[in-house]
Amino acid sequence: MEKWSLMSITVLLALTVRWAVSLGSYSGAGKPPMYGDYEAQRHWQEITYNLPIRQWYFNTSDNNLLYWGLDYPPLTAYHSFVCAYIAKLINPDWVALHTSRGYESQPHKLFMRTTVFVADLLVYIPAVILYCFSLKETSAKKKASTCALCILLYPGLILIDHGHFQYPSSAWKLIPALGLALWAVLCLSHDWDLLGSVAFCLALNYKQMELYHSLPFFCYLLGKCFKKGLKGKGLVLLAKLAGTVLLSFAACWLPFGTDVEQIMQVLRRLFPIDRGLFEACMFSSPTHCPDKVANIWCSLSVLIKIKNVLSPRTQLKLSFAVTFLSLLPACIKLTVQPSLRGFKFALVSCALSFFLFSFQVHEKSILLVSVPVCLIINEIPFMATWFLLVSTFSLLPLLLKDGLLLAYAVTTPAFLAVCLASFSILEKTSAEDLQLKAFSLSLKGYVSWFKSFPRIVRGLFLLSLSLMGVLSVLSAAVPPPQSLPDLFPVAVAVVSCLHFLLFLVYFNVVILWDSKNRGQKKMS
Fold first, then answer.
1. What are the residue ranges of helices labelled H in 161-292?
2. Is 0.85 topped by the overall pTM?
């Protein structure tokens, strides 16, 4: 009972923080003609409730795709319809066709916020709790609660879910998808491969950016099939997995499967490659300026205007090639030596490769890397905490635009304090603590500074924190030069990108030099 009491307190604290952050104004409030992301989700309810399914993704007189047209997978649309049905029962004005555009009221805000907490409580938080209880290292009652507290208090997800969006991110885009992906990880950890496949297919049909995590799932399950032997049990498992995936996708896409043009239009909305390498969002605005995304293409664009040098098709090919090459080492290792530990690290590495090098990356996509990092915070608490702090810092320009400076200034140090208290991260900087023992042994005799490695790592961490702190203060308090209006946002993006590149190298080193056979463990 004691462990559940501690976990209840943890969940209550996490929900309290989320509610406090959500009390501010939402993104785009009172700013016509688009009104922001909050209005996008309300508009999707309006469209899905009032129009037949065949019109949801098409431009018509009743569905202007230039005004927050639906561009997420079918499960998002179905969820919009369900919430719209409930909204209609409460107040028909909330989803009235055409006349509800830009609707804002306190009761409607309460409705939207409530759906956030329902999504958290039904999908994401239970998955986090069960994951923490499943960890081998958390046999002590206190450990599961502290691990869950660190994951649930990760500021990046809280600030975007409950501050920037307040509604759509958690109820529509990220939380259900990430929660379902986490359920899939839990299923795979218990060898429930078919249930895990269903859960991940649902995640992918909720948010197309779950493609960031698709290759580790594919390679891990394929590796299990190879390990069992493709002439026996492995072939049977492969056939079952293929059938499960096909049936899951068929069920999600059934209403659109009667017409090939319907399917193609949905795919065009989900993957608008004609927008170019940097156009992660349909509408250009200061928030979505490509120079504010902390990936390699936007950072390089500070020096080389890639979109002026390369054609859109060449940009696409280059992006695909670099992304594929950066994914390859981790995916090959996972396929050849499938293990749950390698699977979790591959989730991080592959998602980070997608964020850094892929096509049309949005600044909020870093959360698709951060949540897998949360899953290994018990294994490498120092590096995981460092990464999660940098990922939150990379969102700073967006958070400042939405008036979330106070929330950022409170939740980020609080998260660091919780991690320091829970894991004593500054004491876990040795090569062994950072899972680099095998790598350090391979370099023994060649790199003399490995003896000073813990001190060097702690120094770099403190330097990184200082740099992020200074840039945060400058971004919030100092007006930029008139000739360089984006100076601080670009600085934040470039500094974050450099961090992420080093983290990518680190995670790949851990994966490739991991010689321990942990495949038989349920959870590492």
1. 168, 175-189, 193-204, 214-228, 233-253, 260-270
2. yes
